């Protein structure tokens, strides 16, 4: 990078030296390079191209207290699920693939086992017996209330009925957990398999089963993540925790889109330190939907602890000399004056050319006119040095305080202030000689 800058500077110096030689060797009546007013640098198109000069305006940025941080993208606990089998069984079929998008209730796999059959048989048998016990209970109750039946018999039937009813509700709940219909089972429809379904909408991140293997009740079969609720999870060290508040803005970049700055808002701050890190977790919700972000992705950025936007420029737009700082702005008046000066010289040259070569043909004169108009666009531009006060710096930008006001649309040299100052000092040294 330094070598490119040195080459650019040498090119500008060479161009300027050539212009000076031309000025010294020029004959009376020829166009000469005009030196700019004090504090003004004149650059022709070749010099601007050699420097790769860029123009821009002031930018408003927040350069106040900021906390550097990094972390990773995460989803809340409610947006991530590990799918297990309620009752263990053998995997008969797997119906999804890693990365598939699934909806809540969608079948992920099919398990089969004799225990599923027995559970349904027990439920169907108990449902039939419960009908008899319910009828007997109602009959004994009526006899007891009419002082006809013995109280002991009524209490025994009541106990059996309540016990059977509780067991019935338990078996019914187990069937529902297995996504089997109790009503169909009571009608005699017995299934030897059960579906494993997704509890949430999301994407399949892990598949830990194979067809034919036995999946226990505690084994994780699938992991589902809902990325629509993804947020930024940062780590902030203890010496900066006191600066944090809910609602603060975070500017950060993600690993897969490093050229785009994302923003988020803090909604939760951890209340305990991460083990061995002396840092707390800070959770921030994204201010806009950003495709391509996935949990676990590395992120880094800074937290704005207060809001105080100020006028800034890139560091290369500001140059220091002693204790003072300067920028270079496009001086439109000096540029127009210099352009007018060039036009006057062109007119004089054309007049002298007409006197000397009065016999020139109309065709050659037309070609000369055309060439003159084509060159008018290659005008010299004037840049005036303006003193400023440099303030805070962050991420390649410096705060700029103006000693005298400038219009908001002022065109400013953004990248070569150092070389313009060097050229200006060179010209001043030449004048002293």
Overall description:
The protein is of the alpha+beta class and 433 residues long. Among the domains are: 66-77 and 226-308, Efflux pump adaptor protein, beta barrel domain (Elongation Factor Tu (Ef-tu), domain 3, Beta Barrel), CATH 2.40.30.170; 85-112 and 192-225, RNA polymerase II/Efflux pump adaptor protein, barrel-sandwich hybrid domain (OB fold (Dihydrolipoamide Acetyltransferase, E2P)), CATH 2.40.50.100; 114-190. It contains eight helices and 23 strands. It has helices spanning 2-25, 45-51, 114-145, 151-177, 182-186, 332-356, 362-375, 417-432; strands spanning 40-43, 55-56, 59-62, 66-74, 80-84, 89-94, 101-102, 107-112, 193-197, 202-207, 214-215, 220-225, 231-237, 249-254, 257-269, 279-286, 298-304, 309-314, 319-321, 324-330, 381-394, 397-402, 412-413. The strands form five sheets. Strands 1, 3, 18, 19, 20, 21 and 22 form a seven-stranded antiparallel β-sheet that branches. Helix content is 35%, strand content 31%. The protein is elongated, with a radius of gyration of 42 Å. Mean pLDDT is 81; it is low at 1-7, 18-34 and 355-377. α1 runs antiparallel to α2 and α3 (114-145) packs antiparallel against α4 (151-177). Keywords: Coiled coil, Transport. One of its GO terms (cellular component) is cell envelope. One of its GO terms (molecular function) is transmembrane transporter activity. Residues 336-375 have a biased composition (Basic and acidic residues). InterPro entries: Beta-barrel_RND_2 (IPR058792), BSH_CzcB-like (IPR058647), MFP_Cation_Efflux (IPR051909), RND_pump_MFP (IPR006143).
